[in-house]
Amino acid sequence: MSNDNKMLSNKAYDKYKRNPEARAFYRSAAWQKVRLIILQRDNYLCQECFKKDRLTIANIVHHIEPLLDNWDKGLEEDNLESICESCHNKEHPEKGSRKKEVKQSKVRIHKPKTNRAIV
Ligand SMILES: [Zn+2]
Ligand SMILES: [Zn+2]
């Protein structure tokens, strides 16, 4: 258990953490099975690294279309790819980068702060 979970006020992250269906999904035998199929299909190599000519062991099977957006594709092989942890963090910037670059890269200012004149 890490304490910093609470500090992530992040919707996408919490969405999975709190979603009992998602948790059940990841624990299901069906998922475990498909997961292995995908890893074997991809030779246990990270497909994102592979595109960049790097060979990295994949330890995560990633949903290209997010599970919560598309349950139908949850077990669809075309929607799954093997990926390494660091690439996975890039695929999910909302939950990934809390270790290092959280502070800088996560702060996105949507409100234009220099536009006071408009008011
Ligand atoms: Zn990778
Ligand atoms: Zn993912």
From TrEMBL:
Keywords: Endonuclease, Hydrolase, Nuclease. It comes from the Bacteria. GO terms for molecular function: endonuclease activity. CDD domains: HNHc. It comes from Paenibacillus gallinarum. InterPro entries: HNH, HNH_nuc. Belongs to the HNH nuclease family. Residues 88-119 are annotated as: Disordered. Pfam families: HNH (PF01844). Residues 33-89 form the HNH nuclease domain. PANTHER family: HNH NUCLEASE YAJD-RELATED. This is Putative HNH nuclease YajD. Residues 97-119 have a biased composition (Basic residues).
